UniProtKB/TrEMBL annotation:
GO molecular function: hydrolase activity
Name of the protein in its database record: NTE family protein
Keywords: Hydrolase, Lipid degradation, Lipid metabolism
Claim: Hydrolase is one of the keywords in the record: yes
InterPro entries tied to this protein: Acyl_Trfase/lysoPLipase, NTE, PNPLA_dom
Catalytic site: 54 (nucleophile), 168 (proton acceptor)
GO terms for biological process, alphabetical: lipid catabolic process
Motif (GXSXG): 52-56
């Protein structure tokens, strides 16, 4: 789905504008952000700024402040053993994992340590557990901000940041278009990973199977419930704060926990980017 405010926006317009990119949350579906960004690069589209939530914050940090080529090459070649090595289980203490090893993995690719040194500019969000307030990071250390933004309840333990206990920003603002607007973007492109969230994780057959007592497992139910909530929040916020282009990659074949399907998921993001670029109006004279 593409939301286009003007039929006259061309690829050259996007290249010359301050392009803002919003990378939404979606757990393992975040691999789609990698393919999307790779295709933008191939088309000569370099964002002016990125606003990331959850896995979007993680990928956004690697793109804006890390060795992007080395990161993508490594991530898309990871096997089950590589992924399992990043697990630091603490269940049942506040979540399945602490998340520190995931952040350590990201740190091995980072070239900058502070958000204000990222290029393009990067903002990430989180939610304060005590107050329900959104916390937006635009300066300060990158890694603690990302750690807070990815703290999906049930998966990762909450993150302390100064005197605040923070969790995944998607609980409040899963597709932070408004944050990207505040970063002086001329045109905002938002990548929503959860348009087909229900179709991938709890199939009709599973629902029917619940009748004789076979229910989806606890974590599928928990994470799917969170993303139902996030999808609802998205729909409400998008009515008030629409991006100029809303991109929803076809991800119904990838569940929120499909961390072992990175290359296929990245290709789905790349296809969405190619479609988006191909549907732009031709430049005068083309």
């Amino acid at each position: 789905m593409n939301t286009i405010p003007s039929p006259h926006i061309t690829l050259n317009d996007l290249r010359s504008a301050k392009l803002g990119l919003v990378l939404g949350g979606g757990a393992a579906r975040g691999f789609a952000h990698i393919g999307f960004l790779q295709e933008l690069d191939r088309a000569g589209l370099r964002p002016h700024c990125i606003a990331g939530c959850s896995i979007g914050a993680f990928v956004g940090a690697a793109y804006a402040g890390g060795d992007w080529a080395r990161f993508t090459d490594h991530v898309l070649k990871m096997g089950r053993g590589d992924l399992m090595s990043m697990a630091d289980p603490v269940f049942p203490r506040h979540g399945l994992m602490d998340g520190d090893r995931v952040v350590e993995f990201l740190s091995s690719f980072m070239r900058v340590s502070r958000l204000e040194d990222c290029a393009p500019a990067l903002a990430v969000n989180a939610a304060d557990v005590a107050t329900g307030e959104e916390v937006v990071f635009t300066s300060g250390p990158v890694l603690p901000a990302v750690r807070a933004s990815i703290a999906l309840p049930g998966m990762f333990t909450p993150a302390w940041n100064e005197d605040r206990l923070l969790v995944d920003g998607g609980l409040i603002n899963p597709l932070p278009v408004n944050i990207c607007r505040k970063m002086n973007a001329d045109i905002v492109v938002a990548v929503d990973l959860n348009a087909q969230v229900l179709k991938a994780d709890i199939h009709l057959e599973q629902t029917k199977a619940a009748a004789p007592g076979k229910m989806p497992n606890l974590f599928v139910l928990l994470f799917n419930s969170i993303y139902i909530m996030q999808r609802t929040i998205n729909l409400m916020r998008l009515k008030k704060e629409p991006p100029d282009f809303l991109i929803q990659p076809e991800l119904r074949d990838y569940s929120l926990m499909d961390f072992f399907k990175g290359p296929g998921c990245a290709e789905a993001g790349a296809r969405a980017a190619r479609k988006f670029i191909s549907e732009l109006s031709p430049a005068p004279g083309d």
